[in-house]
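Can you give me the bound-state structure? Components:
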Amino acid sequence: MLTQSQAGDLFDRIRKRSTADEVEVLFSGGRFALTRFANNIIHQNVAEENYSVSVRTAFGEKTARASTNKFDDESLGQVVRASESLAKVQYPDPDLLPMPDASEAPITSEPAPSRCFERTAKITPAVRAEGVRKIVNVAERHKLTTAGVFSSAESIDGIFNSRGLSRWHTQTSAEISITMLAADSSGWQKANSPDVANLDPSRLAEIAAKKAVDSARPREIPAGKYTVILEPAAVLDIVGFMFWDYSGVAVLDQRSFLTGRIGAKLFDENITIWDDAAHPLQSGSPFDGEGVRRKKIELVENGVVKRLVYARSTAERVKRSEYHNKVGPVEATGHGFALPNEMGEMPLNIVFAAPENPRTLDQMIATTERGVLVTRLWYIREVEPYEKILTGMTRDGTFYVQGGRVQCGVRNFRFNQSLIHMLSGVDAMSVPQRSSGEESFDMVVPAMRVRDFNFTEVTRF
Amino acid sequence: MKHVAEWALNAAAAGGASYADVRIVAQRGRALTTKNGKVGSASEAESVGLSVRVIADGAWGFAASAGLGSAAVQATAADAVEIARASARVKLQDVQLAAEKPVVAEWTTPHKIDPFSVSVEQNIDLLLKIDAELRSVAGITLAETNLNSNREEQWFVSSQGSDIHQTKLSTGAGYAAYAFAGKEIQKRSYPNSYGGQWQNKGYELIDELKLLENAKRTAEEAVALHQANQCPEGTFDIILDSSQLGLQIHESVGHPIELDRVLGMEANFAGTSFLTLDKLRTLRYGSELVNVVADARQEHGPGLGTFGFDDEGVPAQCTPIITNGLFTGYLSSRETAHTIGESRSGGTLRAEGWNRLPMIRMTNISLLPGKKALSLEQLIEATDHGLLMQTNRSWSIDDKRYNFQFGCEIGWEIKKGKRIRMVKNPSYSGITTEFWNALDAICSRDEWTLWGTPNCGKGQPQQVMGTGHGAAPSRFRGIKVGSAYR
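Here's the bound-state model for the whole set.
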């Protein structure tokens, strides 16, 4: 693994080669391995090690970036020249700020608990194969076919700049995702954690298998508005589509559904959302693309949109804009992407607050007269950006609930659903948990029961 | 680079691999964007490395590293063998590869102007002129442009004797104008949404696209959409422009014909396919007018799926996918060809870069143009009541590729052969085979465009790949419209 000390030496070599007013270098990479299985065998099995340096140079109000994964002297010289050549031909950007120094972007400590576990870093191909064997055993016991992944990684993120800022983050991660397939049904489970000890392949496989078995011979019920119970993975995949809009740049660009709505009560009283990189169930580095510490930000409080997140220059732009007194506190929050970029910033460590009276999934089912239980959503896309209408499909375990019990599997639905309406119709939530889907990034989210969820079509399976 | 590859091949053989191939890849990319009169991002990136794919104990292993020194390369090959032996712990039978003659060859994307030979200043100047033109239209609240250049040089060497040096170039550009007013954001893009048009060719593409010439009209349409009526809901005859039809082909033909999906190898993420093996040469996929090919050959055009050889050394081919409406072919690889009774791969295995495993990817999946001369205007004139929909805005399809829904940026209601009004928020939905069987007219070759989709995601870890889709405007009868806004 590339160490902070080695990265520091590389930064010094890069800095010596640069004639720019300021230099910033981002380091990223690590070791990654993934064992993939399908049809009850391992069919793909990969590993890689790679690191990149990404050099941003600035001449006055001009800046640009170049990157390489070659660290020899000639390649480092080339990447500096490429960055400088690009920077010199830019038009001056009056919004470009000097790079932050360490005092402007203080980091107190790495998140607690640690996100780096030796037992995760040391996972071998044989260990992953053994995990897959356990999953296949469950599939065979239920006469099912399984497909999925077991991956492991050890990664670094670092940033150094010529004003003395130096940040470094190491992390491990392990992930298991399992699909169980029967003749006309399927089930799914996915989990990840920095610590592989938190993952139990057999337990995940049993849950996925039960969903496949219980949803066999799916009935077709008509499209329409239903009470739905969304498992946490389904919640995160759909709500993830709104967080691009909690950005100062998105509001300045008038592409955010929050334009003109900050301070308004958009959602139910029971919806409170934080961005909190230090949350014990979160992962990722504690600093942003300029090295600024990620602050804990309350985005939504009891249904009211409270705040946006800001990169350093975005905060300055908003302070000078017509929005300066309409969007709550405006300051650099440590959510900026690496510069230069056109998107600004985004909250990436979403944590939903626990409800006052949490309900388990079973309690939600038991108190639902007629509804649909959804395991997972798929191929979600934005249909209408200001009302935040999203379309997508249910997948891998969709069930009809009647009289407080799961009755049967049903054919999958297409939905066209406004996120604003959805989060205004939540009548029960579970305790939030770290969850992982495929359409959005990992979050700490609850299961939700939602009134009048809008299914518009039914597919053939 | 051959000597580097041979270090890996020798180490793999010494470790007990029965097959090995090595790809050494050097990629370079330049990405420029502007937004509202300023450069949004300006970046250059290069990445170089090697991967080793092996079969040992009858199972696959793959390892990749940026290190190209002899010790690093041999260690990577040894890792690949160790991984293959781990794979063999959970297998049912040995991997079979369809026979393929070894090839020694050089191939380069035909191009007139190396995109990296054009100065960054010239590119930015063009983008900022477009940006100014877009924002000269009152009501435009956001203007975005992009221009991208990519170069990939690859050395492929296999233990079966192939030695292929291939260089691919691609260029892409486009822009979008947004108008926010009231409680609505409307958008128009040119020449296509989500990054514009992309092809495997040089900088000559940029002149061909006539970007600046179309900027003002594009922006005016974005503003005008605010005054347009909502697209009606119901059942209509619809005409799709060629870019939207290109994406329709991608989602409802290109993905379901991927043989790895059909065989369940992608079931956990991308999904499976309704095109089970029993449907080959028995399913009426579309109407008699529907002829679709998977064509990676140079003569098909400069699509993002055009190459000399795929990433396991198989020469580019043309496979008939739908022939006069009948389903006739899948996208296959050396490992999967035998499952459909083929003795040879269809040549579709490709990887995103040096550190990714090649997998079945769309090449250029194209709907062939109509044989009778027919322009878009003539097709409109021949339509009694319908909707013309242009430029994709949203897309979604289920994980077996049956049920789809697409939204477009702009629509036009047609009555008695004339466009009578602009409509906003058009969308349509359906079931794949019903939709393709409803096609009753395809415009001819002079309306046909080979579109590039630069952002097709598949695989775990996910790989992003460029694919090509040729299409001419076409008409579909009795299609469900508007349920996205119900």
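A couple of observations. Chain A touches chain B through 94 residues (CB under 8 Å). The two ends of chain A are 46 Å apart (CA to CA).
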